[in-house]
Amino acid sequence: MTVDGRLARGERTRTAVLDRALVLATSEGLDGLSLNQLAVALGISKAGLFAHWRSKESLQLAVIEHARAQWTGEVIRPALHEPRGVRRLWAVHDRRLAFYEAERLPGGCFFANAHFEFNARPGEVQDRLATELRDWMSFLESLAADAIAVGDLRAETDAAAIAYEMESLGVCAVMQAPVLGPEVTFRHARNALLGHLRALATDPTLLELP
Question: What residues have CB less than 8 Å from 16, skipping those under 6 apart?
């Protein structure tokens, strides 16, 4: 029981630190994280954090994984409850924008910010971010391909192009929202993809107009 209790407390501490680190990474940069900064912010010892991460890079990699888990839980998994095809494809875009609108992270999007920050910094962090982006784009393309396969989108539709357009609209919206206003940018991001998918759909009524 004592060992189990220590493990549970350790896991709670680890989760609390990663939650805080994820928030800080979107406002101060992934490279701006430090174990000392997190220890002060959470009121725990720096030595305690070393039990989980022995270096700044190991912390950064853990934050990337934590961000992926958050994204999966709040964007991907809810969207997968929608029927296969174009409605599921649309739901991923809609859930993504809803996540941004909820302002869960002060910097808008962890992954967009981190990619811009590390694009010119070779190393393990950049490699992990590149893997995340490839996985995400493959996921979007697979959803578009599935919508074609089930007959929701016309056979000549380019699944890779749909994935690129979805990602472009999402990144553009979250980056412009603080300047141009969230109501305008997220509305445009939704309407642009909705109109495009309805034009490609074999049955446009599968996607309701706002």
Answer: 42
User: Which of 209, 202, 105, 83 is closest to 152 using CA atoms?
Assistant: 202
CA–CA separation, 67 vs 190, rounded Å?
A: 23
**Can you give the pLDDT at residue 51?**
63
Q: What angle do CA 154, 78, 159 make, to 5 degrees?
A: 25
Cβ–Cβ < 8 Å for 195, 183: no
Q: Which amino acid is at 71?
A: W
**Residue 18: how many other CB atoms lie within 10 Å:** 22
Structure confidence at residue 50 (pLDDT): 62
Which pTM was predicted? Answer: 0.90
* Nearest alpha-carbon partner for 27 in 103, 112, 107, 99: 107
C-beta separation of 71 from 105 below 8 A: no
Torsion of CA 22, 23, 25, 29, to 10 degrees: 170
3-state DSSP helix/strand/coil % of the chain, to nearest 5? 75, 0, 20
Answer yes or no: are the C-beta atoms of 139 and 76 closer than 8 Å. yes
**What is the SS3 assignment for 201?**
strand
